[in-house]
């Protein structure tokens, strides 16, 4: 029988054994073949599970349309035991030994053997045609087979690509996958595969394939870098638009190449099950795609094998896994691996890691949670588990006293009490701040009453919402470097509304700031008045003693003197400011100050003072913006505009840690460049802004942010001649202080391999300042000696500020490289201008993507400034 089959399809029957044994007849085989008959909707390979005995071999040539229209059929045994939890339908079932090895039931250890047709000598009988094909020949040559350490697998040498002779140049079989080899020493079918020991506790059943160059389609081998591809969830082969249907066939188990059908999925792709079949959507109807996606999610072979899921050290049974997956709040992204579960609180996490989720409590899965389950080292316990640093931070933010290394009992709703004490002390989750801290530190919060992501599919509850992976940007900078301005700018840019609470806070903040600015003005007026009085007296004295006796009547005093009403208001305001009682004043909303402010603002003395505002050092630059609308702002019904919010100094009174989630809106640039970016509009990002004060001494709290994808380190370029006093009153150059903070961060062990994007901010201010104060004022920049041409500035002849920016960037790059051996990315920003902030954040996204893809997507011209290309001289 096998011989006959081989005669029929000599080049395409790799798996048919020599023996005509009944066993073989009764083994189910799949035939994947391409249909080349009259046009049907689309030509796709058909997968037909048949037994050899059922194959219509009577007269293949004359058997009519069906067989004649099939070319290159691939016949493969369907090995039902490819998933570890599945029962075999036959005796010829592979057994998974406890060591995780795959072996034959009869104890024969499988040897790598041919799969094309075995001669009695065990050598290959390769048809002449095939011999011409180097790749195929290599594959078929037993001397080229190698055993791996386990002795179970075989590696295809040479190209490692199963290459099949092309008949008409058009209809290759999906040939990239290394075929499982088959031995027939015991009439049993054994699939040899490579073990991927990298996966936690699992025996990977995935056939390895040769990784082709990026962008290459695994079927037609054409390089189409910017063309969307569909990926096999088992072997990772990617197929282009033209090839995907031929390579994947009817997809009974979702997006798998035909040769991967029956195999367990690659666990790293589990998160992608049922998601984003963008290419298929272009090729198939909605219903077809939906069915394929449903099969992908629901078919048995794609499920997580229970014995590979360990909870508190115990492997699960099928019923336990079912319970876990179908409870009210099931673990998300459940994959084979080791987890811990605190039944009392519902905390759930990967072994050795902080909790990732709060699932339904009191489930009967796994044993007791171990003290070291999450590898915490804080000596503080929650339900017998030593908690992690992050959790300790969260508890502290919730106001839970943690001195004395207490042991807490925490229940599902977050109520907690100390061990040995009867009274509940409160609820952890009550404070909004605690939730914010949790969001930032990637700690779970109890699920809401309703979880909208859960959906009923075919009677089974599945978490069907895309498990969006969030990329985290950590924005840090020295005092007043502009991080909150950039943060607010991002909020406005990406349409993340300020909450009512935030708006109320900001409104008060702006009004308070305005009163502060007015206070500075009023003090200034008093000073100017005194100065002019002094001046007047001097002049009088000169006049009296003067020879001529003529007096020049310039009386400045009237300019700076105010009427009684304004004086009274001014005295009151200064008093309020001094007593720091503004909040109380504003909270009595019934009081309307606008009319006072208006009267005062119109006063000639105040206007005269305002005109000399450059002499008032206490008045920040931004004050002009707010003073110009002093009357509107002081009204009780004032609503801050986005611009007002942006310019307001500080976000809230406690602005040490803020966090927002956003997506990049699709830009026209994204459209034209790469599908990757189009997909990106659905990806979520988190911008976390943290003040260095919150990081503690030597940034000791920095490891809270270990899952940061990229650090945006913000430096104000105007800091080079400014000083700040530390707690001992010692003055430090702010640029050097910034450099010091930068060094602490980049050398922090948690951030060893992190990407850093340096944001050189306040370029607008630098342009003004650099004309007045040389950059070399800062000792770190002492060798900045630019030769600036008098000609107009252009791209080849940059301005002094541009040169300074390049120079500062270079200094940081060199420093970064000397500390980390890595490349620092740099972006030029003016925090008050939205386009530069947008550009910097998109650049950060690009850097993360490069990391993911290992290759840059497009050239740097489109991204933020590349310092390396510039010169500093
Ligand atoms: N002109 C100009 N002003 C800026 C720029 N970026 C920030 N500022 C101003 O600089 C001041 C400090 O900026 P913030 O964003 O508050 O700085 P910060 O990093 O939050 O500093 P902390 O207040 O210490 O938290 C504010 O008055 C901002 O309006 C910029 O690019 N140009
Ligand atoms: Mg600020």
Task: Please name the defining characteristics of this protein.
Rossmann fold; disordered N terminus; binds guanosine-5'-triphosphate; 873 residues; binds magnesium ion; 29 strands; alpha+beta; globular; P-loop_NTPase; disordered C terminus; 4 domains; 31% helix; six-stranded mixed β-sheet; five-stranded mixed β-sheet; metal-binding
Q: Can you tell me about this structure?
A:
Helices cover 31% and strands 14% of the residues. By secondary structure, the chain is of the alpha+beta class. The chain folds into 4 domains: 2-210, no CATH class; 306-463, no CATH class; 473-494 and 663-718 and 734-768 and 799-869, Rossmann fold, CATH 3.40.50.300; 500-647, Orthogonal Bundle (GI Alpha 1, domain 2-like), CATH 1.10.400. Helix 12 (483-493) packs across helix 27 (834-853) and helix 13 (500-545) crosses helix 18 (604-611). The protein is globular, with a radius of gyration of 36 Å. Bound molecules: guanosine-5'-triphosphate and magnesium ion. Magnesium ion binds at residues 484, 649-650.
How are the secondary structure elements laid out?
Layout: H1 2-8, H2 22-26, E1 28-35, E2 46-51, H3 65-68, E3 70-77, E4 95-96, E5 102-103, H4 128-131, H5 134-140, E6 146-147, E7 154-155, E8 230-231, E9 238-239, H6 244-248, H7 278-283, H8 286-298, E10 309-311, E11 314-315, H9 318-325, E12 337-341, E13 347-350, E14 355-358, E15 381-382, E16 385-386, H10 389-397, E17 407-410, E18 415-418, E19 426-427, H11 432-440, E20 454-457, E21 460-463, E22 470-477, H12 483-493, H13 500-545, H14 557-560, H15 564-579, H16 582-587, H17 594-602, H18 604-611, H19 623-627, H20 630-633, H21 642-647, E23 657-662, H22 668-673, H23 675-680, E24 684-690, E25 710-716, E26 723-725, E27 731-733, H24 734-746, E28 755-761, H25 763-772, H26 800-820, E29 825-828, H27 834-853
Parallel strand pairs: 10-12, 15-17, 22-24, 22-25, 25-28, 28-29
Antiparallel strand pairs: 1-2, 1-3, 4-5, 6-7, 8-9, 10-11, 12-13, 13-14, 15-16, 17-18, 18-19, 20-21, 23-24, 26-27
The protein binds guanosine-5'-triphosphate and magnesium ion.
Region (Disordered): 107-155
Pfam family, one: G-alpha
Binding site for Mg(2+): 484, 654
């Amino acid at each position: 029988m096998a011989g006959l089959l081989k005669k029929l399809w000599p080049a395409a029957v790799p798996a048919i054994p020599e023996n005509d044994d009944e066993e073989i007849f009764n083994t189910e085989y799949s035939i994947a073949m391409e249909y080349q008959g009259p046009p049907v909707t689309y030509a796709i390979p058909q997968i037909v599970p048949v037994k050899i005995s059922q194959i219509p071999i009577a007269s293949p040539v004359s058997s009519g349309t069906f067989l004649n229209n099939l070319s290159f059929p691939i016949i493969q045994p369907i090995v039902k035991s490819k998933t570890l939890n599945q029962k075999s339908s036959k005796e010829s079932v592979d057994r998974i030994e406890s060591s995780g090895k795959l072996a034959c039931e009869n104890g024969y250890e499988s040897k790598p053997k041919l799969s094309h047709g075995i001669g009695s000598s065990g050598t290959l009988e390769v048809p002449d045609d095939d011999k011409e094909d180097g790749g195929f020949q290599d594959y078929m040559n037993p001397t080229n087979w190698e055993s791996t350490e386990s002795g179970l697998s075989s590696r295809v040498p040479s190209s490692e690509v199963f290459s099949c002779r092309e008949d008409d140049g058009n209809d290759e079989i999906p040939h990239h996958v290394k075929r499982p080899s088959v031995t027939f020493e015991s009439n049993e079918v054994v699939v040899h595969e490579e073990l991927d020991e990298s996966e936690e506790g699992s025996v990977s059943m995935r056939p390895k394939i040769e990784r082709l160059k990026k962008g290459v389609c695994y079927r037609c081998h054409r390089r189409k870098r910017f063309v969307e591809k569909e990926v096999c969830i088992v072997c990772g082969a990617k197929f282009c638009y033209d090839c995907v249907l031929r390579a994947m066939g009817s997809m009974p188990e979702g997006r798998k190449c035909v040769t991967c059908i029956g195999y367990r999925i690659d666990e790293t792709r589990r998160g992608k099950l049922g998601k984003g079949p963008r290419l298929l959507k272009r090729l198939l109807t909605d219903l077809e795609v939906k069915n394929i996606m449903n099969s992908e999610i629901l078919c048995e072979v794609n499920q997580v094998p229970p014995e590979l899921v360990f909870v508190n050290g115990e492997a699960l049974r099928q019923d336990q896994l079912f319970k876990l997956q179908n409870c009210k709040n099931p673990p998300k992204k459940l994959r084979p691996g080791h987890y811990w579960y605190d039944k009392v609180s519902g905390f759930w996490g990967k072994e050795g890691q902080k909790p990732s989720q709060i699932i339904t409590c009191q489930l009967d899965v796994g044993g007791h949670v171990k003290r070291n389950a999450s590898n915490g080292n804080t000596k503080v316990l929650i339900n017998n588990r030593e908690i992690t640093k992050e959790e300790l931070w969260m508890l502290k933010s919730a106001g839970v006293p943690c001195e004395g290394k207490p042991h807490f009992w925490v229940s599902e709703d977050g109520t907690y009490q100390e061990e040995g004490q009867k009274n509940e002390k409160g609820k952890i989750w009550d404070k909004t701040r605690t939730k914010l801290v949790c969001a930032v530190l990637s700690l779970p919060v109890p699920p809401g009453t309703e979880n909208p992501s859960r959906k009923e599919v075919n009677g089974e509850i599945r978490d069907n919402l895309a498990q969006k992976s969030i990329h985290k940007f950590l924005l840090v900078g020295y005092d007043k470097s502009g991080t909150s301005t950039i943060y607010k700018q991002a909020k406005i840019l990406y349409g993340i509304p300020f909450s009512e609470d935030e708006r109320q806070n900001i409104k008060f903040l702006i009004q308070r700031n305005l009163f502060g600015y007015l206070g500075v003005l009023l003090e200034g007026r008093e000073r100017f008045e005194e100065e002019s009085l002094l001046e007047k007296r001097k002049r009088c004295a000169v006049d009296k003693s003067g020879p001529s006796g003529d007096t020049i009547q310039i009386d400045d005093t009237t300019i700076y003197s105010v009427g009684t009403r304004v004086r009274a208001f001014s005295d009151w305001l200064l008093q309020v400011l001094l007593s720091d009682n503004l909040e109380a004043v504003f909270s009595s909303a019934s009081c309307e100050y606008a009319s006072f402010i208006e009267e005062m603002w119109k006063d000639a003395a105040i206007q005269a003072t305002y005109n000399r505002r450059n002499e008032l050092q206490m008045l920040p630059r931004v004050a002009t913006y707010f003073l110009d609308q002093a009357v509107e702002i002081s009204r009780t019904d004032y609503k801050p505009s986005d611009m007002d919010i942006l310019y307001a100094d500080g976000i809230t009174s406690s602005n040490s840690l803020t966090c927002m989630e956003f997506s990049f809106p699709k830009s026209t640039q994204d459209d034209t460049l790469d599908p990757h970016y189009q997909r990106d509009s659905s990806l979520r990002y988190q911008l976390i802004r943290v003040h260095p004060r919150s990081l503690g001494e030597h940034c000791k709290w920095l490891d809270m942010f270990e899952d940061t994808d990229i650090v945006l380190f913000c430096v104000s370029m105007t800091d080079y001649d400014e000083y700040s006093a530390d707690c001992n009153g010692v003055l430090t150059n702010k640029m050097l202080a910034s450099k010091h903070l930068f060094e602490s961060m980049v050398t922090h062990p948690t951030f060893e391999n992190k990407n850093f994007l340096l944001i050189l901010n306040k370029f607008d201010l630098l342009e003004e300042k650099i004309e007045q104060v040389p950059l070399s004022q800062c000792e770190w920049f002492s060798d900045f000696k630019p030769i600036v041409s008098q000609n107009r500035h252009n791209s080849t002849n940059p301005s002094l500020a541009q040169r300074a920016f390049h120079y500062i960037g270079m200094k940081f790059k060199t420093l970064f490289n000397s500390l980390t051996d890595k490349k620092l990315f740099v972006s030029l920003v003016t925090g008050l201008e939205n386009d530069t902030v947008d550009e910097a954040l998109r650049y950060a996204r690009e850097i993360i993507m490069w990391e993911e893809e290992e290759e840059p997507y497009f050239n740097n011209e489109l991204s933020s400034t590349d310092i390396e290309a510039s010169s500093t001289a």
